[in-house]
Amino acid sequence: MSVKDITIFNNLTRTKEKFKTLEDGKVRFYSCGPTTYDFLHVGNARALVVGDLIFRILKTVGYEVNFVRNFTDVDDKIIERAKEEGVDPLVHSQKYIDECLKDMASLNLLPATHTPKVSDTMPQIIDMIKILEDKGFAYVVDGEVFYHVPLFKDYGKLSKKKIEDLQFGKRVEVDSRKKNPCDFVLWKPAKEGEPSWDSPWGAGRPGWHIECSAMAKTFLGPEIDLHHGGIDLMFPHHENEIAQSEAANGCTFSDHWCHNEFLNFGSEKMSKSLGNVITIRAFVETYSGEVLRHILSSVHYRSKMDWTKSIIERAIGEIERLHVFYKELMGMPRTDKESQKDFDQVVSTRKKMEEELSNDFNVPGATSELFSLIRYFNREYISNLGEGISEKLFSELISLLKFYSNATGLLYDNFDEMLGHINHARKSLCEASEKLTDEEVEKLIKDRKEARATKDWSRSDQIRDQLNEAGIVVKDNPDGTYSWHYK
Ligand code: AMP
Ligand code: ZN
User: Fold this and answer.
1) CATH number of the domain encompassing residue 82
2) 70 in ligand 1 pocket by Cβ < 6 Å?
């Protein structure tokens, strides 16, 4: 299969570039994964969904992708939290890796090709530190190994920071063992009760940055095509990954770098330390994974986004429209009458969607093209159900929806489950819904049915008003059936 051209905004050059890979048709792609000490929040989900969108779109345009997303399972925060709970740190982090995998499944993330853990990568991490020590980039003080930043001439090439400015900013730093304030830890001696591994520098554990350099090299090779992470990771994490990998391997580390912007809560970034955290799990239980996935893919990955009630409401409405369109299309009768104009419109929408996705992964652009088409077909076909649709046009539309679903990971909930989720989600957003319990709603719906059966219209209208005040709309169909939903 031939590969379509795509462009990516490369943060290394701060320009949009034609994406060229080391090997034709193949991509070596690394994305920094989560630190597993607690349930992840919806901000972390943005980084996960963006990594998955990049993976999916690269596959959609024809690339064979070797995708690595790690789990940081050895870390200060994990050790602290495990100590508080009186459990072994690796048992604690495995528990949250398992929870994270459940969240990833609920967001319809494709499994990465490799999902290494730090605790399983120790020999490779130690090997890389040894190479850095042999080449003179690392030095040892009291069993602690530091990377000597000034020796790496390209330091700052990603974040565009200068060592001189950084040194100035770090004057207050107290660690006098460092030769330069910018130097960072590669290996640290373990303290009592902490997990540790034997090494040439004594029992200890790695600093944070070295794991990604070692994992990328192990699973993708010394040079890779694309590296992704949240924007907060650009400095110092990614800058340090470059310094380690390029010094150890003697070649460019990653040819392209892309970073997703933050999800902010109010005007502040969402983080556990700010206490404004909504976990993926809690959100998905109320609103569904597909609604969260749609929220996170409805804004371009390089734009900041705010977590607001209106963004949630809009996503619920759009997901509903998407599924209802698919369902209604499936139920349309066939006709022999062809409409070349409508067929051409589907073909041209597909082309425009492909162009958007190939243009720096513009998922919102592709979604907007699809919704224009859905509006047109709702107007011309769905409201005229009896007219039917030709087999050729039907197949083209189904193939378009499948293409969109593969590229974006949306449209995966089963229809009836999705309707249940949507109703539950709307109820959660509707403050008036608290006026009636589920049991009271059920009883009123039943009473209304009885009132209508006995032609007690005033009672039926009164119940309808009461339900309406609690945010519920009852719809009577011409065939005598009825349905209800939250506003
Ligand atoms: P951490 O577990 O803190 O290392 O974060 C895992 C990933 O989530 C990293 O790529 C972070 O950049 C990303 N991340 C954390 N908080 C947010 C947020 N509020 N918005 C977007 N990405 C985030
Ligand atoms: Zn990393």
Assistant:
1) 3.40.50.620
2) no
